[in-house]
Write a structure and sequence with these properties.
alpha/beta, UDP-N-acetylmuramoyl-L-alanine:D-glutamate ligase, eight-stranded mixed sheet, four-stranded mixed sheet, 14 strands, globular
């Protein structure tokens, strides 16, 4: 079972400039939790949910998607809002209303106990950047990592407008990286955090600090990965008709964790032992899950059945191309 710690907020999406805003539950951790649950992995969400009407929309969405909320905290603080506008390519730009809202007030008591049977813990995004909650989440995942009781994954999902000074943000991210077995970051994340360092060099540096696997996403160009043993893998993107990119990185993270789970890699040290071929299979799932999400409006990741159908179709297309090339070469 997965446990995801972090924000569950309300996205207000403006599909066309000057148009109305459409409210949709979101936030990286909530999106990842929903993605995992839809891919067939029981998932608990540890979020701080507002008792107000907007918070109840978020709760209902989580419940409708089958997420466990027994360890979620309830608060009278208001729900966090993220206003998203889309450009002509469907890429989203965000403005956040976070002052005094529900997602950042984590206490040690609220995080003292994880759900029973937790095999993997994921954290990241704004909940690991905004105090005081970030300062409570860090020792929680450090404890889990030290105990060896569950796989820990981390995705910084950097929002420069909320990250604070770069030097402090880098130090904070690196503390979470050191407490994780698996880390994922986008090329935009690393470009802001380490503007003078090549992205793959950053991944290699990260794996020397503790993680067994570090993954770089590159939008439509696919992804690359480095393991602590020095193995590397690169997977191309999948061409789709993009509705928007909201939740694409979160869907990738869900697909990555899903692939690791199905590969039997939630046990300590198992990720390190992945062969390059098996790692490519895991990364391919993440790329496909992300691409399917981009075909839909908003953060709407696919179910296991939808992923499987698309993956089978893609595999058949690749085999057909291979046969055609073979016939032509003869």
């Amino acid at each position: 079972m997965f446990t995801v710690i972090g924000e569950a907020l309300l996205d207000l999406v403006q599909p066309t400039p000057g148009g109305s805003y459409d409210p949709r539950p979101g936030g990286g951790p909530l999106n990842i939790a929903v993605g995992l649950q839809r891919l067939g992995h029981p998932t608990q969400l540890m979020a701080r949910l507002s008792r107000g009407s907007l918070g109840q929309l978020v709760r209902q969405y989580a419940e409708q998607n089958g997420l466990g909320l027994a360890h979620a905290a309830e608060t009278d603080e208001l729900a966090t809002l993220a206003f998203a506008t889309l450009d002509e390519q469907g890429r989203a730009a965000y403005e956040f209303y976070v002052e005094g809202t529900a997602d950042w007030g984590w206490t040690a008591a609220e995080l003292a106990a994880l759900p029973a049977d937790t095999q993997a813990v994921h954290c990241g995004s704004l909940a690991t950047a905004i105090a005081p909650g970030a300062d409570a989440i860090l020792p929680t995942v450090q404890r889990v990592h030290a105990q060896g009781s569950a796989l820990v994954s981390f995705d910084p999902n950097v929002r420069p407008g909320l990250a604070g000074p770069r030097e402090a943000a880098v130090a904070r991210v690196e503390r979470f990286v050191a407490a994780a077995h698996v880390v994922k970051a986008s090329d935009e994340d690393l470009g802001w955090l380490y503007p003078d360092t090549a992205a793959l060099d950053v991944l290699a540096k990260w794996t020397r600090s503790g993680p067994e696997l570090a993954v770089l996403t590159r939008g439509p160009a696919g992804c690359a990965a480095v393991t602590a043993d020095g193995a590397e893998a690169d997977v191309s993107g999948v061409a789709v008709d993009v509705a928007d990119t909201i939740g694409a990185g979160d869907a990738f993270m869900a697909g990555l964790l899903s692939g690791l789970a199905d590969a039997g890699c939630l046990q300590r040290g198992a990720v390190r032992r992945l062969s390059t071929g098996d790692l490519r299979v895991v990364l391919q799932r993440a790329v496909v899950v992300s691409a399917l999400t981009c075909e839909r409006v908003g953060a709407d990741p696919p179910t296991r059945a939808e992923y499987s159908a698309y993956h089978q179709e893609l595999s058949e297309s690749i085999r057909s191309i291979g046969r055609l090339r073979s016939d032509n070469s003869g």
